[in-house]
Structures are given as structure tokens and as C-alpha cells.
Amino acid sequence: MDSNIPTKFRLPQGLRKPAVVVEIGNDWLKVMEGASFGQESAVTKVSFKKLVEIKEPVTVALAKIFKDMKLNTQGVIACIPRHLVRVRILEFPSTNSRDIRDMVSLQVGKQTPYSRDEIIFTYKTIGVSATGYTKVMLVIARRNLVNARVEVLQKAGIEVEKVTMSSEGLAHWFHMTYWAETSPGKSKVYDNVKLEDQAVICVDIDSNYSDFIVLRQGKLVYTRNFLVGANHLLGEDVTWREKFGEEVTHSIGLYQNEDRDAKIVQLFLGGSAAHVPQLAQMLETKIEVPVVMTEPTHQIHLAKGLTLFEKDEGRFVSPCPLIGMSLGAAALELDLTSSELRIKKQMEERRKQITVTGVLVLSIIMMLSTLFFIVFYGKSSYLAGIKKSIANIEKDASEVEQMRSSISLVKGRLDARKSSINILHEIGRLTPQEIYFTNINIEEDKQTVLQGRAAAMSNVFEFVTTLENSPYFENVQTTYTTTKKEKDTEYAKFEIICMHEKDTEHFDNEASETPQLIHPME
User: Which of 413, 437, 455 is the last residue of a domain?
Assistant: First the structure.
């Protein structure tokens, strides 16, 4: 169209921050990043994964994709597929934005069977008539569907900046790629139609559904979806192509009932349409409007070495809405972000502002205090006082260190009666002749492990009782006892674990000994 036509889809010249878009569909997980380089924009990173092929939870898969692709997790745009929202075109007898907002709020309850608490809605103006009427596009989504996708992103550590529907991204993509080719000089169809009456259709074919949009003078004015997608059209059942043609024809009729002065002058097929044989010819015969087959990356810059699809994903999935959103993020008007998330973001921004303000105020107070102190007392006296204080502290610290060393030495002497040697001596004193040990492991302040043999099982139990009566041990337990036979001689093999009794008067809680291992004794 003529370049003088005003449009909402032109990118702001100052946009530099990369935009990341995520779409969690019924069968595909799509992630795309777009960035601006000077006067040009390009798709820089992309990932398309089929949900049935993801073996891990979607949150884990998303976190891994963002980490592997080094994507920014802040300010992400969530794309809601068109078939998950309801769109209504309404006309109100006013041009005042406040009046329109109030009328939309009154009408939204009549456009859906759900209560106000169960939905999220947004709208945008698509036209103002000379008679003072305003036409708006109202978009309604179920709150649980939006919140479910936002929660998945949040659990993956991704912060959602905006939630919008795929049709808006598709309109952005079409304006970037093929809108210039719909100018009057490019088609004879436009010769008999006024510029303001011309309407262009774009049908984007995704995996399980198709998005039907209409643009007039560069603006998205109508959208509808129908559940016929690439999975159906690329199958063996050719009746799906007839069904597709019927849905397109029906959508055109519905739009013309809404906008009677519009003249459909051209239809563009996008997404995976190019992979469906004879689709353009069949459709052109049915609707009697010129049909153009599009290429998703037409007029779109890709980062060096980047390809949109691996293998044959391009046959079944459309990247067009994500391209439009990632390269035109700043111009997105529709926002289905829930009020809870908006309030949370506002509170977070307020918290950051308060924190920054507090830090600045404290910094100013500290600077003023320091300046006052320096001016009032003088630098020299301040430094002299500090040096004197340091000298006094060093003297006191030296005395305290000597006292600490003396105390540690005394406590070490007092703790001698609880040493490993004394414990070993106590074990030897209590051990009867019927028992000998194969291993003794002593850990100070922890436990002692005794392993050995006894002439009979009763000797083991008697020895356990003897240990329990000793003031050195507590919590005496046999971890195992078993009877063995060797050269016609039976003996009992055992392992005993006991804890040292802790004498608070003589043990320093901070003192510890290196565990000692007594080698097997025969």
C-alpha cells in the first residue's frame, strides 16, 4: 500500500533490546529471539520442539532451551494461540477513550458464558467513522489457560512481560514481509477499488489450526480461526482440503457481514501452506480472489548461520506469528496479562524504586555526616585518635591471646583422662579372657567400634552388659552377632558400637581429636 498510510506496525527506531517470544501450543513448543542492529532487525535464535518428543517436564525443557541458547529470561512475551481466545468486533457511539473503556467493560460479560473472574480481556481501536462511532477489537481469554502458561514460564525461571495472541504477531509479520506487494501498482485488481475500501486476507496454516486475518490500510481489523491445519492438509484424506476451502469461504462471508464496504482484493497463504500441493489453485477457483503463496522468511533477516527448522518441522508448523512478535515487540497493543501479574510487576518495580531511593538517601546522609565530622574535628585529630586506639587494642589483644593459650593448655590437661589411651585401657580392663578383638576403632567425642570373636554368644552379651556399667560408655549396641565354625570349633563373631559419655566439666565443645585406628589384635 501507499507509504503515507498510517500504521501501528512500524518498529520504533530506538528499539535495541532483543525480544524473546514463547508459544506453548497444543503440540509444539516454540521459542524465538529477535534483535535490532542499527536500522535493521533480524531473527537471531529459534527453537521448535514437538511436545510429544519432550521426555521431561515442559518447565525443565524451557529452562534448558533458555540456558543452551543463552536467552534473556527477563521481559519475555508469551504468545497465546488464536484458537484459545475469543475475538469480537464491537462498535460504540463515542470517540472518547474513557467512554469506550467503560462500554467495553459493560459488554465483555455478554460476549462470553464465563464470569468476569474466569476471564482476562483486552481490546484495541481498529477504526473511527466520520459519524463518531468507534470500532474496537475485543479479545477474551480464559484466565486459567493464560495463568497455566505463565506459571510454566515462571517455574522455569522466566519473567513474563506481556501476553498476547498469535493473530497480532501474524499481522506484524505480514506487514514486514508482503504488505509492500499489495500496493496498487503491483496488481490490476486494485484498479476498480478505492484505496480505503481495499481489504487483504492472510491465512496462516499452523499444525492443527489456521489463523484467518484481514488487514485494511495496514491495520488488523478482523481475525478468525478454524481447526484445519497442516496435520490435516498433509494427510492422505483429500477431503480436508475441501474443508479448508469451505472454512476460508465461510470466514470471508462472516467478515463481509461485519464490514460491508470492504472489498477483498487479494489472499495470502502463510505458514506451512507452501507444502500443501495445489492448495493455492484450489482456493483461487473457489473464492475467485487472487491467491499468493508466501515464504515465512521473505524480507526477513536471519542471523548468520541460523536456519528456522531442522529436518521437516517447516512442513507442519508456522513461525510467522513469532517472527512478527520478536521483531515488532514494541508495537504490540494487545495484552492479556492477568491483573495479578500486573500488580506483582508494579509492586516489584515499586520495591526497586524504594530500594534505590533508600540507598541514595543513606548515601547522602553518610556523606553529609562524614563531611561534618571532618570539618568539625579536623583530619589530623581524627587520624591521631585512630592510631591511638589501634595501639591500645593491639596491647589488649596480645594479653587476651596469652590468656587464651594458657586456658587451652589447662583444658587440654584436664581432658587427658578422656583420651584414646584411657578409653583403650578401660576396654582392656573390662574384656574377659573369652573375648579377643580383631579391630578397635576409637573416635573422640563420637563412638567406638569393637569387632572380634568370643567363645560363645553368651560371652558377647555379658560383655555388652559390662560395657554399659562402665562410666566411660553409653548406648552400647551390638550391630551384629553370628556363630561361625572353623576346624570343628564354633565361635561367635560380633560387632559392638558404643558412644563415649560426655563430661561437660572436662570436655571443651570446640576441641576435637583425630580419629585413631587400632590395628587388629590376635
Answer: 413
